Model the fold of this input.
Amino acid sequence: MNISENKIYDLVYGDKPILELKEEAMQKKYSTYGTTVTFSPKVFIPLTTLCRDHCTYCTFVKSPTDGGVYLTVEEVLSIAEAGESAYCTEALFTLGDKPEDKWKEAKNFLSNNNCNSTSEYLTSSMEIVNRKTTLFPHANPGLMSKEDIIEYKKHSVSGGLMIETFSTRLLNKGQPHYMCKTKSPNLRVQTIEYANTIKYPMTTGLLIGIGQDQREIARDLWGLYNLVNKYSCIQEVIIQNFVPKMNTLMKNSPEPSTDLFTRVLAVARIILPTNISIQAPPNLINDVSLLLGSGINDLGGVSPLTIDLVNPDKLWPQLDHLTNIVSGTGQVLKSRLPVYPSYIDRKWLDDKNYEKVITVIDSDGYTRFDKMVKV
Done:
């Protein structure tokens, strides 16, 4: 297929019936992943809810007066150990972006914990979880420097940074990313470029419906297409639908329609290389089977213990229920680590992490729960 921004626009907004788009997407999905649909059993570890930015749709971030805090090392380890007991394999470290640049409370906490930065505190927290539990840390700290990524790679098997949108218009006054410098698409792409240089497996993706117009959504998919073809560190992309939340400035903003969102999912699968896994969260839509018929091969992290701290009012589906839904579409749900099978290689993983990974996977690179070990 000859891919261009205009071609993508025609696929998303043209006259081609959605059933034809979904059929084409599923054929491409089956050609590489067969009937397998994966997920990552995880626990959320909200290392800090402080941040130097505050997007107009975010409820995760809090100011110090509203309860913005850091977790202590003891709290981090307690969450990880609970996840270990529940056979989780991923410790998803979610946190605000460099809050010490804005809040004196953040600086004070870090100083009291012998750290110069949140990045340093994240590194030490991931090291403890990686060493003392069977979980595999995944870092989601916002923008990252080369030095950050070098340190993160020692103690985590992957990282993540959503592009969300390539539209710089949404940085303007009155838009959701106004005065949120870390949401600059150029800075986010720079982080992915750093990760590519250092060979650190990354997740990225788009947030559909935060204010993009039709042309911008097509341009976002076009930008994503170019990004994954340029940077081999990208192991998966998330296509996520915006969901309005109470107590935010965007609480009355509309969600993208189910028809639009599933068309975007299908087009993403059609245009992106087959080696790129496509994920859509199963707790943000009423009918998960609609996702499973649109070309995705992954449902992301699902936790038996912790809520979705980014979308706290959207509960995870129970795993047995999710298994039945997947089975009902003629597919099979399998557990994976936060590093995909094709990235389980010494080129992409620190030696100690590689040795930990290979002891817990089967011949296809999926999880063997009977072999969970500590390093």
Observations:
- The chain has one domain: 5-371.
- Residues 214-230 form the longest helix (17 residues).
- The chain is about 35% helix and 15% strand.
- The domain at 5-371 is CATH 3.20.20.70 (TIM Barrel).
